[in-house]
Amino acid sequence: MALCWISIHSVVVVWSIMCSFTANVRSSPCAEVHAPSTVVLAGSPVTVSCYIKEDCSLTKGQDFHVEWPYQANLNYSDVANQNKSIYEIIIHKFTDRTAVLHCAICKHEDCSVVAGVEIKAANPPPALQNLTCLLNLTVPYSLLCTWNPGEETSSIPTTYTLHTEIRNQAFKYVPPPGKHFYRVPRNGFALFYEVQVHVEAVNALGRSTSEHWVMDPMETVKLDTPEIQKVGTEKYGCLRHKWSLSERQRWIVKYMCIEIRLTPMHGKVSDRQQVSLRNHSKPGTIDVCDLLHGMMYQSEMRVRYRSSPWSEWSHPTVATTLIKAPTGRLVTWLKLLGQSANRRHRAELFWKPSLQFRANSMNVSYIVSLVRPPSQRKTVCNTFQQHCSFQIPVDVRKIHLTAVNTAGKSSPTEVAVYKHTEQDPVAYLRVYPESEESVLTEWSSPVSSAVSTYVLEWKALHEEIPQISFEIVDKNQSSLVVAGLEPYQPYNISIYPKYKDGIGQPYTVMAYTRQKAPSKSPEPQFGEIRSSYVELYWDEIPLQNRNGIITSYRVFYWDDENRVRVTDLEGTEKRVVLKDLRPSSMYSIILMTSTTGGSINGTTVTVKTPSIDAFEIVLVVIPACVGLTLLFLGVFTCFSNNKCLKKCLWPMIPDPANSSIKKWTITSSLQDIPSFKEVKDPVLVYLSHFSLLSLSEKELWKGNPSTSEYLHSCKWSYDGKSVNDDHSDSSRDSGIYNSGSQTESVPYATVVFANSYRSQPAAPPAYLRSESTQPLLGEEEPSSPRPYEKMLTQAEPSEADHFSTFQEDLGSKQERVSLWEDFPMLKSLEVKGSSHQA
Question: What's the whole-number mean pLDDT along residues 368-393?
Fold first, then answer.
């Protein structure tokens, strides 16, 4: 029994879902659902009731209750039951476009849908808008009216009705369902009379009406394209047009409005312009005047009736006005390019029409003449272009420029010749992008204040033969917008200050109206390839492919292990060396080119670095070995000749405060004295060497030998080296200053004394001349001078300060006392003090 009930319940549910897609009231033998209307106003409350029939098998002898399933999205509430067979709910605000309400009989938790009803929410028709009507004069005549229904609802049908009223006679027209236009037949309107039109919309919830429009059907007609039959020229500056309407509309002869558009053809001199003429006229002829003389014009025409829509433009017709001689002056710009060897200036003259200039013909040529005093003219150019190059003799002061056509010549435009072209330029010129087709130029006044005007010149660099354009600017103006340029293309912009007696030097800047990434990046090429570095170089990008000023290059390169390195370069560099590479490695390289507008990467190139070969090893090892060898030889030479090394590193400079003997050598005394050719006085030559020996009193006077014998017994030698070697001990004992170990000079003389020289005995030491070849104070005598000895002139040996002649017979004691003044060189050896210090 339970399974049967579940089966019946499932069938009822499926039946209710299938029926929910229909738009009628659903009922069953058990119940019926009622609503006030199946279409309700959107947002209004709705009351729905469910009537349970007495013979319903689901309710006989059983406890049940009624529910409204599947309506969780609706805001509803139950109403108190009037009796046990009627159950009601109230939906407070019905907003769904379509909803199906179901009534279900429930026993405990098991419910069975027994009836239902579908309710639709809608609105009254919205106000109709944009009602328009157009008259169609194609036979049969008709008036096509259209309108905008607004936000139309498809849930309920809406009926539209077009109403027209003519001379108090009303007509109604109902379009097919879903259509929002209607073509009114000829009997529903009248030409040249007013017609009142409006549209009405009706649905189950209400109606709406458009505004009433009163119009003349003729003012809504779009006439056919007119025909220009002929264009003639009968007077200067005018074109006469003969025209008519189409053949089926030629009956319209009043209240016509026409418009003629004329466009100059091949206007090289004057700016291209359009001349429009609107006039009320009947079909026939019409004149258009105030045109350029001798100019070919293309004429087009369109018409309308009063304020009706314009017709289409007619087919163009070309005609030429009558020719007259050119009038007005030309704007000129003369550039002197330098003086040739024959005392002539190379010059370029550019010109363009002023606002007052009229060529008065299509084909105009120009004559450039040099004017020489007195009133002599020489033609140098006869051209159809607006520029000319020629040479100017130095005696020419002005040039005449004349425009010529078949009707005559214009008055000559006089151009002054400036001889000075080295005047001061402006301080700066700056260019800023203004738009894709223009730039803003700004400049400063030059140092000189005698500027009369400025000439701003520009030319496109991407053209094979650049066309130069210019503008004359007032002296009080410091900026100008240059228009008519192409984006992403380079232009040279120059400013020339114009003085009363000459033209200043130009200040030139390259500029772009707008920049973007270059069209392509240069492909790098390989130069020298080594194991540790690779040289790259590339060519410049063509001007037409740069699309801006190249600001930088960036080189990306990576090895087999994808270790990427980057090298940045300035935009002017075209070469780079990639260093610190690994031998026998494959590298991939990409060159990126950048402008202020963007960047672009080039193609990837690869290169493999070679391995280190024997030749490179030799190139590295040989210079290293040579360097080490030279370094070793230099060190060895320095240490072997320790005299030079000592002299360079720690030169011995005697301290006069702590010395008791002097040292003189010619080389050491004169090496720092500059040679002066003008010095006539003889240079004082010092003695080359002195050796000081100190002996004991016993050795000095033993057996009273002769000094010569003593010297021989002491192994005296005139060689400085032997003296140092034989007397090293005595030098250490008595503190002898021996310079022989420092130089190679031969001792000039030796002073021998024991202990302090003030305490010596009377016996004199020997004083002998050396074998030195060094020049003495005077010319030598044929024989050697007599030896000298130290003599005692007083009782105390310490007071002896004289030398006497040393005779062969010392025992005779014959002495001849001599003063220090007799020996000026020996006097310099005098050591004052109580004791001798080395």
Answer: 88
